[in-house]
Amino acid sequence: MRIEQLLYLIAIYKAQSISLAAERSHISQPAMSSAISKLEDELGVRLLKRTSEGVYPTEPGLAVIQKAQDIVRLMEEITLIGKQDGLELKGDISLAVEQHVNMILMPKVLTLFKQRYPNVMVMQKVGESNNILGDIQAGKADFGIVIKTRELEKTKDLQVTELFCDQLVVLAGRNNPLAAKGSIQMSEAIRQPLILLNTEYTTQCGISEILSEYGPLQVAFRVDSIPMLEKLLQQGRSIAFVPRLAAGEYTQTQKLVALPVADASLDIPIVMARSKRHHFSTLEKELMKAIRAAFSS
């Protein structure tokens, strides 16, 4: 038995796909399949079962995976004893982050993290919260920082930790008649032409889930980039709902105005979500510490 075989087994468990696990482990699919077959022969049990929906562990396979995860954690702790200097730590982290969290926090977080751990490669995708959930479930992202949505609440195989609670505010162009108001009633806001941020064509975005509780939405545009959102707001009569955390970034050019909603509490918890199959590595724990510190400040 080799440690690589255990690492491959964990990777398949997380990805639910041998091909994706092989890609993320930087080896060929036949080589990974061969390594698992040899491990099964050595242990005398079948560890994985293939279905039309993916690859899943058998009952003894799950027991082996849990022990393997314990072994990997212990190895990481041992490695840290000899590598207290961040310069010595190496590895890859893949995460996915909601657009506004990325805009406000992640440039500083990633810069400081890279200074401390220069040999760690962080691969970050930016997207809409509900779209990110699919990446986490598919094993494409180790974890995500997202808005807590209805879709997330329905998902049973994700571990969720709240980081911060924000509120939605209305964003309007300076030339929009609404801009002269100090605040806006939800009944008026819900009637306005609306721009939604979404990174896929089919998935209902998390913010629209929240707003739909107050009535039918008058969606004018769905766009996948913040610069396009800003231009549409500046040039038309549409509005958008954005986290208060991000409002200052939008309004610093004075071309857009942020309006609080006077009669509705549009709370949006910002959470860390990861698959229950995924156990944080030492490096991921260090990155989460940096993200938590950014929210605290």
TrEMBL record:
It holds the Pfam family LysR_substrate. Gene3D superfamilies: 3.40.190.290, Winged helix-like DNA-binding domain superfamily/Winged helix DNA-binding domain. The keyword rRNA-binding does not apply. Residues 1-58 form the HTH lysR-type domain. Keywords: DNA-binding, Transcription, Transcription regulation. InterPro entries: HTH-type_LysR_regulators (IPR050950), LysR_HTH_N (IPR000847), LysR_subst-bd (IPR005119), WH-like_DNA-bd_sf (IPR036388), WH_DNA-bd_sf (IPR036390). GO terms for molecular function: DNA binding; DNA-binding transcription factor activity. One of its GO terms (cellular component) is cytosol. It comes from the Bacteria. Belongs to the LysR transcriptional regulatory family. This is DNA-binding transcriptional regulator, LysR family.
